[in-house]
Amino acid sequence: MAACVVLLLAAATHAGAGEERPDVNIMTVTGTGEVRVVPDVAVISLGVETRHAQASQAIEQNNRLMTAVVQAIRAQNVPERNIQTSRLSVSREYEPVREGQRPNPVYVVRNIVTVRLMDVQRVGAVLDAATEAGANTVHGISFISERDQQAREEALRQAVRDARAKADVLAQALGVRLEGVESVYESSGPIILPQQADAAETFVARTQAPVSPGENVIRANVTVRYRLAR
Q1: Is residue 198 a part of any domain in this protein?
Q2: What is the pTM of this model?
Q3: Domain count, the chain
Q4: Dist CA 63 CA 110 (whole Å)
Q5: Which residues contact 107 (CB under 8 A, 6 or more apart)?
Q6: Is residue 197 part of a domain?
Q7: Is 84 among the domain residues?
Q8: Do 44 and 115 touch, CB atoms closer than 8 A?
Q9: Residue 210: which pLDDT band, with cuts at 50, 70 and 90?
Q10: What is the mean pLDDT of the chain?
Q11: Taking a C-beta distance cutoff of 8 angstroms, is the pair 12, 21 a contact?
C-alpha cells in the first residue's frame, strides 16, 4: 500500500524579545496490518413463523413446532447453552385481499433462536434437522473465530511495524533522523466476514449442501507522528 506521509516544518516563533524557539519538525506516516483467521464457530439464526385468525391458535402452533425444532437441534449434539431465543413476537397483520373486500386480520407469531456451533462442518446437518422438524425461517449464517482478539493484536503490531518501516525509509531519503514518537492514533477496521448464506436459498435447499466458512480478515490502521532531530 502506498505510504501516506506528511512532513511538517513549523515556522519559528518568538517566545520573547531576542529569544527564538527551535523549529518543530514532524513526520506523519500511516501503517496498516492485516491478519486472516479461519473461522471455527458458526452462528445460525433460524426459527418458526405461524399465522392464524386466532392468536391462541397461532401461539399454540408455534410453540408445538418450535419445541420440535429445538429438540431436533439438540439431537445434533448441540448443547442447550448454545441455543438461545433471540426474538419472540406476536403481531396482528392484514392479509392482502382483492379491491373492495374487507381485509381480515391475522395473528403472526415469530420465534427465532440463535444456534452456536463449535464445529463449522455441522452447519448443513443442523439446518437440515431443524427444517425437517418445522423451522420455516432461516435468517442467515455467520462465521467467527475464537482467535479474533489475538488476531486484532497481531494486526496492530503489524501496522506499527509498517509505519516505522516507512518512516525509516523516508528519514534516510530526506537525510534526517527520527528522534521519537510525538503521538499515535489507532483505528481498527471491521472484521470482514465471509459471505453469509442467503436465508431463502438455505431454506429451499433443506440443506446438506456444502457450506464454506472461508476466512475472516481483520485489519488495523495506525497514524504515527514522529519527531525529527534537527
Answers
A1: no
A2: 0.67
A3: 2
A4: 10
A5: 51, 52, 53, 54, 55, 57, 58, 59, 90, 91, 92, 93
A6: no
A7: yes
A8: yes
A9: low
A10: 83
A11: yes
